[in-house]
């Protein structure tokens, strides 16, 4: 059953929790990468200029976030706390994006991250092309408008 969450814009005091979710989720999902690749503060540097929304449970706990580069509706990051995955938080974050379902959002999903790829398939994303990046091969996916 989906967990009820409130999706709101991120604030400055959210950063420590966002960084923690970012690190823990990446360590769990990117099992082929060294833990040395996950450096504190990476999220803030990587998401500069992006719009970030957080998913917050009724008790105030932040359990996920999404960051979007607004110039081209590119979803740069979508992460849920590892202990809250599979509870509908990711879909809730996507549905909260501006004009979701009416605008074409894109993202890159690492080819080795099969659980994420299955998640995006279930959300209606379609593969556009296979590319190669510094973290390895990735799929460019789009959610049709």
UniProtKB/TrEMBL annotation:
- Residue limits of the N-acetyltransferase domain? 5-145
- Pfam assignment, any one: Acetyltransf_1
CDD domains referenced in this protein's UniProt entry, alphabetically? NAT_SF
Q: Name the source's superkingdom.
A: Bacteria
Gene3D superfamilies in the record, alphabetically?
Answer: 3.40.630.30
Q: Which UniProt keywords apply?
A: Acyltransferase, Ribonucleoprotein, Ribosomal protein, Transferase
One cellular component GO annotation, for this chain's record?
Answer: ribosome
**Protein name per the record:** Ribosomal protein S18 acetylase RimI-like enzyme
The species is: Paludibacterium purpuratum
